[in-house]
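User: Study the fold:
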Amino acid sequence: MTTGRPLFRLIREIFTSYPAKVPAAVFMILFCAAINTLPSVFIQRVIALIEFSGPDASWPELSGKVAGLLSVLAGLYVLSLAGAVLVGQLGAEITQGVLFHLRRKMFARMQNLPLKFFDSNPHGDIMSRYTNDVDSIRQMVSQAVPQMLTSIITVIAVLCIMLYFSLWLTFVTLAGIVVMFTVTKKVGGRSARNFREQQRITGRLEGFAEEMITGQRVVKVFCREDESIEAFERLNSELFAEAEKANMRANTLGPILNNIGNILYVVTALAGGILILAEAPNVSISGLPMSVSVAIPFLNMTKQFAMNINHLSMHLNAIVHGLAGTGRIFALIDSGPEEDSGALTAHDSGGSVEFRHVDFGYNPDVQVLHDITLTAKPGQKTAIVGSTGAGKTTIANLIPRFYDVQAGEILYGGMIVKYFTKSSLRKKLGIVLQDTSLFTGTVMENIRYGNMSATDEECIEAAKLSGADEFIARLPEGYATFLAGGGANLSQGQRQLIAIARAAAANPEVMILDEATSSIDTRTEALVQRGMDALMRGRTVFVIAHRLSTVRNSDLILVMEHGRIIERGTHEELMLQRGRYYSLYTGAFELS
């Protein structure tokens, strides 16, 4: 993405959000910048009054004129101060408002993104857009843009006043400015590329850090601390190298331009002195002769001109940094939402699920499922077993349309699922995954998460069905116990029981249990199994499990290998076949 597009989109975002306040702030910035260029004009008037008054001038009259000019100047400075305060207040409101709108758009878009986006983008990189990239926009909008606008207006205004005083001295100043612009373009362009790369690597580094935080137990168990440090050092070194280049060039630019400005000041002073001594005719809009009253304020303007050119270069780096973050934020906002071609609402239909010759691959070039055909009826428990990578979880992902099939059809209640809206279809499903996700809030709020209209009594009944009620009753505040950090104060098994209770409270027609009891001990699993038997009545249940105790009492067992169903039947039927299921059952107590 080019820098131009994010810039104009951000400008449009700002003006759209604050159609009245932004023009007011811009006007006040222009007003303050214009006032700040006027001191040179008043200095020229004061010096000219003294220089050309002559020896017979009346001191009281002269001092009165000087005092009058200074009082006008003081009044203008008061107005400038008031304007600066107003700009600061408007700027704070506009900046925070724009960030508020951007964060809201990002989060709203994130809720509509397909799972494929989260599978292909590290979570830390996504978080970096909410933190580092948003902060770079804050600095750009609240500081760099207003100050850059002030510098641009100041440069234009000072240039006009210079031309008003002396064309020859203006040419000398512009020659030095050409040199400054050339240096800015070469150094600034290189630092811009480094700043964009810095933002990208920062996202990678934060993603890695998040992985290490969430997987710290695994790191310690396998004694991988040193390797983790080495991997972090590699990323950190990449970030250091890019950040060093970007900031070194940005920080070098300021001193270089300052020195060019100082040299320009000296050259302008020499040129002015030579013109005065040579009594050369002055060419200017004002028609003023070349004199001390012209040269002194002109030197002040030269300093002001060079200083604002330097400011422009520094603000440019901040803007480049901000635009790099802006591009990443808009890339998230522009990410294609989850497609939903369905138009019908899924109503209660008993919950039958049917696969007809389904082919699927997460990558179109790599097929995961091959010609999957199955029928699951209401009240039927269907178990899917097989080796890791056989395609079991993929089937569970296709039923709620987390992904859509490439070939074949999936039916729900006798109708092809792609005709249903995804939201209405998913409301008919209850899913419990191996990796549980609990949210900050009370135990009761987490159970009610899948059905916000469920009463406390219904949530408690769901907890009893799942076997979670027993340990919840022992918590310090029972169902009102507050959970934070994804339920870090609970065991993995307890978190999984709450997740099962959450699915039960949703009262779905179809239950999908993907290794839902993998973190539960044998005794607790027996309790859960009794609850699940009660919960299963009248519902279609899919169970993906390794434990044979969970699989054995299923109405239908599907054995998968390499994305194909190679065996199907009840436990007894499959044992009689003496095939893959038989070898798994007799060879180990767990399927792998």
